[in-house]
Amino acid sequence: MPTINSVEDLKRLREEAQKIKEMRDQAGKTQIVVGMGTIGIAAGARETLKAILTFVEEKNLPDIILRQTGNLGLSGMDPVVKVTLPNQEEVVYVKVSPNIARKIMQDHVVGGNVLTEYVFKE
Amino acid sequence: MRELSLHILDIAENSISAGASKVEILVKEDTLNDELWISVKDNGKGMDEEFLAIVMNPFVTSRTTRKVGLGIPLLKQAAEACNGGMTIDSQPGKGTELTTKFQDSHIDRMPLGNLADTFLSLLIGTPGVNWVLHYQVNDQTFHFDDSEVKRVLDGMPLTDYRVIEYLTNTIQNGINGLNENGFKQGVNHAYN
Lengths: 122, 192
Known about the structure:
The complex is a heterodimer of chains A (122) and B (192).
Chain A: H1 7-27, E1 30-35, H2 38-42, H3 45-58, E2 64-69, E3 81-84, E4 91-93, H4 98-110
Parallel strand pairs in A: 1-2
Antiparallel strand pairs in A: 1-3, 3-4
Chain B: H1 4-17, E1 22-30, E2 35-42, H2 49-56, H3 71-80, E3 85-91, E4 95-103, H4 115-125, E5 130-137, E6 140-145, H5 146-153, H6 161-191
Parallel strand pairs in B: 1-5
Antiparallel strand pairs in B: 1-2, 2-4, 3-4, 5-6
Helix pairs in contact in B: 1-3, 1-4, 4-6
């Protein structure tokens, strides 16, 4: 990093520090993404997301990053949930009801075992 | 969609897709004038007139080059079926404000549904956006702006279980408290 000459430089420095911190933080966390396009919402994606939130809250799970995103492009497969454990491949689950979501949280996110029966197959 | 709150979630998704950094959701139930208003206002990239026409009426246009969803027409249709309608005020580069009005007591008017879960999904699922909820039942209001919470948390994730608990309680209690008091008030007005 060159010498700080202005407030703008300072701002950039802070932003870069923040980015590194975020990357570090996310590397050690489980990422969960719920697809919330129009069809996903109609298929119950909000209830699925809520079930995940409630599980995290009840079990006091640390280091979970939960995000929602638009249509994930798997038509007829909603609600879609992507789970990425630290240093592991992303797993895409389809037709995830709130009950299945709780199972995924318990067995995969907490237990580390992928629930293959609900995983998306091409 | 089974509830208006699911439509709100869907419309707010458009605001996120439009790159908004601030989204304000307003739900106003006025039982005295028998009106229900829902609006979603964002500071995203906005739409030009041509795109707006496609968004409102995706089957009428001859253009097929741009893909648009059905979320807006579905809500528009729901509002029109209840003696209401939809207006969209959008300016490229400035943002979009979508407003829908329903006859509150109309037999076909979908229930508002779980507004708290809709708002929580947005708030926690997309923490990069400043979310504001303004819910009003007659003279009672519940106003929630997440910027204060985020300022205090100073980068701590909203998915921390203690934060989830706090946000869930605050928003649910705020909305439920209003429902009870606001409707009582509406009934009292109507009979006085």
